[in-house]
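User: Assemble these into one structure.

Assistant: Restating your components, then the assembled model:
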Amino acid sequence: MNLDIKLENFEGPLDLLLHLIKKNEMEIWDIQVTRITEQYLAILDAMHHMNLDVAGEFLVMASTLLYIKSKLLLPPSEGELVEEEEEDPRAELVRRLLEYQKYKDAALDLDERELLGRDVFARKFTAPDLAVEEEDTGFYEVGIYDLVEALQDILARAPRDVVHEVGLEQVSIAERINHILGLLSRCDSLAFSDLFQEKPRRNDVIATFLAMLELVKMRTVKLMQNDRCGSIWLFPITAAETLNGSLPEEDSLGYH
Amino acid sequence: MDITDLKGMLEAMVFVSDVPLKADRLAELVACDRALVQSALQELAEEYHRRDGGIELAEVAGGYQFRTAARHVEAVRRLNRSKPFRFSRAALESLAIIAYRQPVTRGDVEYLRGVDSGGVIKTLLDKHLIRILGKKEVAGRPLIYGTTREFLEVFGLRSLNDLPTLKEFSEIDLDQGIADLPLPFTADDQVAEEPSA
Amino acid sequence: MDITDLKGMLEAMVFVSDVPLKADRLAELVACDRALVQSALQELAEEYHRRDGGIELAEVAGGYQFRTAARHVEAVRRLNRSKPFRFSRAALESLAIIAYRQPVTRGDVEYLRGVDSGGVIKTLLDKHLIRILGKKEVAGRPLIYGTTREFLEVFGLRSLNDLPTLKEFSEIDLDQGIADLPLPFTADDQVAEEPSA
């Protein structure tokens, strides 16, 4: 049998087992453990020889298979004979495989639906004439866990070492301000992500971010978001021409 | 108010909303009988469906929302300059497990999939497709997860009852029925509910 | 491409766009003759007009845009007014910082979020979710904020002690404790209490 199988194509050991069972034209509830175990181990072995990392889960399954195989080969001990109808050693694995198969199929069903944002689209913006002041009409249901999630987001991006890093790398914030203003003079809005090159260095990101904050503080740009997790957009507040003429001095920004 | 007028009103409201609108809420807003509103919305949805144009009135997440017809996806993508996104198999599998088995813990998902699923659960949380429902009253008090309204919206489901039935393997006669789900804990263990807002 | 298909495509594109779309641009996107696109759009506009429903295909600013019919303006306004307050990401983040780190200044919130938070703090004050506790005894004597009783009610908490600790969330991949929050000032700086109202 052709064992040209890449582990990374499988979601995990259960997925790989299902594949082997199908390939051998077996029924899940009647696995020929010896044959499947041999093939499973051969694949792991091949991976090992190619110096590929085999995730721990695949190894755990290998030992499970070997255990089942040994149980099937050993004659039942006397003590076990007393208990009538001992469960088939394969039963637990079979149940897991059947259960996994079920959700694997359900996942495919989900993927075949018409997905919003992929296959179908809705209007995700408020009509301009409706963007009026909201009245005090109560709250959307927000749980305390939403609050914790928000905090986690901040923690994930908190500027914990900003001040030191900028100092070390001598990235000019005035230069970045200049750059942003230059970009803004050519268009009326700018996506935050457009401020960066393809793969910006960490210090560039920080300097650009600080430059953006400075511009906000100077009331030369405003930041807008079109929905709560949408991308951030920069809009100039005054005409871009006047901005170009009044560049801040590096020293006046207070970053050294 | 005659039915044509009601339909126009409902159409205008559903059109401007950025979220699906429920018949209940619309009935309240137009001060009309809920059943009347519901049937007017159904009629509208059928009209759009029969017309077979660029937009459809879809029933999702318990409400109504205008959406583009799936067969014009290419044109819309060209306009938005967007590439089609793909859910990874890991994401879809975990989402399927959470959707069908909620409330579930990360441990449940990992047991069923047979692999570590922490990263994928984090991603699903970030995308607001699942949310933390609370904590399970067992040792370690693990978090329990369920799907969100956004999940229904993204997958175009009216409600969780709209999920297709899982293919069961009833023909199999194992010593123990498949109905004995092999989860580390059973689903009806006591659950620490999140205090609702 | 037949005209029905073209019309559907145009309809879908105009529907999802947040700005009016010009016939030129649409013609380019569907790779069709401009005159053909123009006449298809005209036909669509007429269909909607004849139908006399809740929405119209309007010709504005040299382009096409779907709009609600003027006579349903009241219903649309009612819908908009009834919108419950939606916690924006900004509001949730600021509220989270204030809840966990109170008493905090606006500067603390802005330092952590990395963006101006004046507007959002004002909104939270207006909604009675936070209140001014006093002034901080540092240069500039900035105001310090804390959460209110209403905050506890909205989030279903008995007291601030009921706020989940971030440690409890360690399973979703969180390696920073709340104590490590990188605030520019420490929370136990001396605080001038405002006489409580």
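The domain at 140-236 of chain A is CATH 1.10.10.580 (Arc Repressor Mutant, subunit A).
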